[in-house]
Amino acid sequence: MAPSSSPIATVAAASDPQGRDSLGAALADRPLPGFRLTLDAPLQLDSGGSLAPVTVAYQTYGTLNAARSNAVLVCHALTGDQFVAEASPITGKPGWWEGMVGPGLPIDTNRFFVICVNVLGGCIGTTGPRDVDPRTGKPYGLSFPVITVGDMVRSQRALIDHLGIDQLFCVIGGSMGGMQVLQWAAMYPDRVFCAVPIAAAVRHSAQNIAFHEVGRQAIMADPEWCGGDYLAQGRQPSRGLSVARMTAHITYLSEQALHRKFGRNLQDRERLTFGFDADFQVESYLRYQGRTFVDRFDANSYLYITRAMDYFDLARDFGSVSAAFKGTRTRFCVVSFTSDWLFPTRESRAIVQALNAVAANVSFVELVSDKGHDAFLLDEPEFLAVMRGFIDGCAEHRGLARA
Amino acid sequence: MAPSSSPIATVAAASDPQGRDSLGAALADRPLPGFRLTLDAPLQLDSGGSLAPVTVAYQTYGTLNAARSNAVLVCHALTGDQFVAEASPITGKPGWWEGMVGPGLPIDTNRFFVICVNVLGGCIGTTGPRDVDPRTGKPYGLSFPVITVGDMVRSQRALIDHLGIDQLFCVIGGSMGGMQVLQWAAMYPDRVFCAVPIAAAVRHSAQNIAFHEVGRQAIMADPEWCGGDYLAQGRQPSRGLSVARMTAHITYLSEQALHRKFGRNLQDRERLTFGFDADFQVESYLRYQGRTFVDRFDANSYLYITRAMDYFDLARDFGSVSAAFKGTRTRFCVVSFTSDWLFPTRESRAIVQALNAVAANVSFVELVSDKGHDAFLLDEPEFLAVMRGFIDGCAEHRGLARA
To answer: Which of B205, B243, B263 minimises the CB distance to A221?
Structure first.
C-alpha cells in the first residue's frame, strides 16, 4: 500500500544571498526522496503551545501487508535522517543503517514495512527552525518552539494514524532513537507490539547535558549565528557548529576505538611540526568531522534537538520510570554496548529494572564491543544476530508470515 | 637561604586599549608575589630553536637547609600556577594545593623547601605568548615557539641550578604536573631523589589529544582571536576560550561526581523553561566555569600548553618508556584514581610497568574516589595519607631531619 501523502518532496532552500547556507544549497530545488505529510491539526506541544503547520518527512521500505501489522518504525538519532537504507541525498553516503535494514537483513524489508521519520525540529524535510514561519514569512530561527522527545513521537503518531496502522509491529532505534522508542512504549503502549531501545536511557545524564551545553555554547558563541537569525541574514555559524560536532564526536567513540584507529599517528608527515596544524591523525579526523557536518546539518536544529534530549526524563513525566510502563504488554529488548560511555550499560539496566518492576516482558543484552556509543550504527555481527533473533521471535508471536 | 633572584615581580600588562584583556587588568601594575629569574643563556628548545630572554616566575615556601637537600619541586597542571599554598593573586581564591602543601601537611613546609614554577608558555609571570617579543616590541602571539614538557623542565632545571640545588629531594605533580615529574626523572635522574607522578601518563592519548584539539579549535574559531594577535589589537577571544574550558572541565570530573553534584536539578526554577537558558544546574555551573576562566588565563597560553601535553611521549623521545628510566635510582610513587577517565589507571600502570622493566624502586597506589581526574586537587584523606607516608619514608632514607 502506498501512503497517500506526496511521494516526492522538494525542500525549499532558505534564503542564501551569500551562498553560505551549504545545507540549503545541498537541498535546493533537488527532489528529496521519500514522502511528506502535512498534519491536519496543530501539533500540541509539551511546552503548552502548539505548532502549525507541521510537515513530517519520512521514508519507507518494503510493503505494508493487508492487515497493516508488519510496520517497523525506525527512530533516528540526533543527527540522523529518514534515509535508513539508501544513500543520503545530502551527502551521497550510504544510509545510516544499511547493515540492519534491507532485504534479508535483521529488519527484513521483504517481510516488514519500514518507516523512518525525520524528527520534529530536524532539517531534512520535517518542520524545524530553518523552515519559514507562516506568520512572519521568515525562517523560524529561535522563535521555533522548544520541542521534546514526546513532541517528536506525537508527530510520528499522527503519521502512523494517517497510514492507517493501529499497531506498529516494532519500534526500534539507538541513542535518541532509543529515547523515542521508550516514549512510544510509554505514551502509546497498545500501539507497539515490540520495542528495541538501543544504547539509550530513561533520562539524559548530567554529563550528557554538559556535553550538549558545550556544543550549544559553541554555536551561540559564533557571531555568524546572529542570535539564531543567520538564515535570514544569509550567514551560517559554521565554525561554532563544527566545534560542537567535534566535541560530540569524541563522545560517540570509545577511548580504545580512537586509540586503535589513530593512536598517536602523525598525519601525512614523519615528525612533529611544532605548530598548530593537525599533526596527529586524530586531529585531522576530528576537523574533517566538524567541517563536513556543517554541510548536512542546521545549527538551530542542533540546538533544538540536543535540548529535546536533555529534557528527556520519563520519571518526571510519568511520576516514575516504572509508572511509565505499568501494565505494558509490549515485548522489550534492551541493548547496550560495553564501551559506550555516553549511554553506558548502567543506563540500560535502569530501563530493565523499571520494566522488571512492572513484570514486563523484557530481555536485555550487553554486547561486547570496543567501538563506543556508535557501535549501534556499525555492522557488529553479534549485534545484528541478536536483533535478528529478537525480531524474528516477536514476528512469530505476532503471526507474521516469513519472507 | 633566600634565592638571589628578584623577590617581587610586576607583570607588565599587555596593551589593553579597550579594557578587554581581563587577565592583563588583573595583573596590571600589581606586584606578583614570589620571585622571578631571567635565565642567563637562551633556552634550547626541543623544536630545534632557542628562546631568549626567558623569565621564570616561581614561588617558594619553607626554608632551604644548609645541605640544600630538602627541596621539593611541585609541578602544576595545565591551568595551574605557582601559588600552591597561598591565595592566587589573580582570583583571590585559595592556593590549588593548600591541603597538600603547608605546615604539618604531607609536603610539610616546616621541613621542606617547596618550589613551584609557572610553566614555560604560561601566563602568570613565566615567559609565554602574551609577553612582548623584544625583536618586535609586540606580544609574541603565535610567533612564540611551540614548546614541550621537556622545554618546561629544562627551564626549571636552570632555576634549580641557580638556586644551587644539586638534587631535588622530591618532584611531584598531577596531570601535566605528573608529565613534568616523569620528564625530570627521565632527563635528570641524578637530580631527583624521589618522584611522584599523579594521574599522569607516559604519553597523551588519542582521546585526550582530541579533547585538546576541540578546545584549540574553539579558541581559533573565535574572530576575536585575530589569528593569535588579539593582545596587540586590544581584543580577547573570551567566548572561544570559555567553550574550550567548558569542554575540558567536563573531562576533569567523573560522571558520578557530576551526577552527585547536580543530577538533573534545575537552576533557581521549579520547572523547565522550554528555552535555551541554563535550565539545569550543570549548565549554569559549566557556564560559570567558562566565564571565570577567561579572567585568569590567556588564550594563546592555552593553545601552547595543550600542545605541549599532546606532544608528550616518552617512548618517542627515549626509544622506549623503559629506556627513559634505565638505571634510575629515583624512588617512584605512582598514583591514580579509580574514576579518572582522562588519565585512567591503565595509564599509570603503563608507567609502573616501564619502571618495573628496569627494576626501578616503584610503588603504585590506585585510590578509590568518585571525583574524577580533579581528585588530585581535592582533600581526599586517603590520598593525603599515602602522600605523607611516601614522602616521610623517602625523607628518612634521605636522612632529612624531622620538622
So the answer is: B243
Give Cβ neighbours of residue B297 (< 8 Å, ≥ 6 apart): B23, B79, B123, B241, B245
The CA distance from A276 to the nearest CA of chain B, in Å, is 8
Contact call for B205 and A247, based on CB within 8 A:
no
Closest by CA position to B351, among listed B150, B199, B212: B199
Domain A4-208+306-398 in CATH 3.40.1390.10? The answer is no
pLDDT band at B1 (very low <50, low <70, confident <90, very high): very low
Closest CA to B331 of B354, B351, B352, B361: B361
Q: How far is CA B398 from CA B101, B107, B115, B330, B331, in A?
A: 20, 15, 18, 11, 11
Cell of B76: 602544576
Domain positions in chain B are 4-208+306-398
Cα B237 to Cα B222: distance, rounded to the nearest angstrom = 6
Whether residue A56 lies within 8 A of chain B, CB to CB, comes out as no
ipTM: 0.92
Note whether A223 contacts B: Cβ–Cβ < 8 A: yes
- For residue B21, which of B147, B102, B130, B101 has the smallest C-alpha distance? B130
Query: Cβ–Cβ of B221/A213 closer than 8 Å?
Result: no
Q: Cβ–Cβ of A255/B145 closer than 8 Å?
A: no
Sign (positive or negative) of CA dihedral B127, B161, B113, B203: positive
Q: Are A182 and A314 in contact (CB under 8 A)?
A: yes
Task: State the nearest Cα–Cα gap between A217 and chain B, in angstroms.
Answer: 7
Convert the pLDDT of each residue in B135-177 to its tens digit. Answer: 999 999 999 999 999 999 999 999 999 999 999 999 999 999 9
B300-346: per-residue pLDDT in tens? 999 999 999 999 999 999 999 999 999 999 999 999 999 999 999 99
Kindly state whether A222 is in contact with chain B, defined as any CB-CB distance less than 8 angstroms.
Answer: yes
Q: Do the chains contact at B243 and A243, CB–CB below 8 Å?
A: yes
* Band (B28; pLDDT cuts 50, 70, 90): low
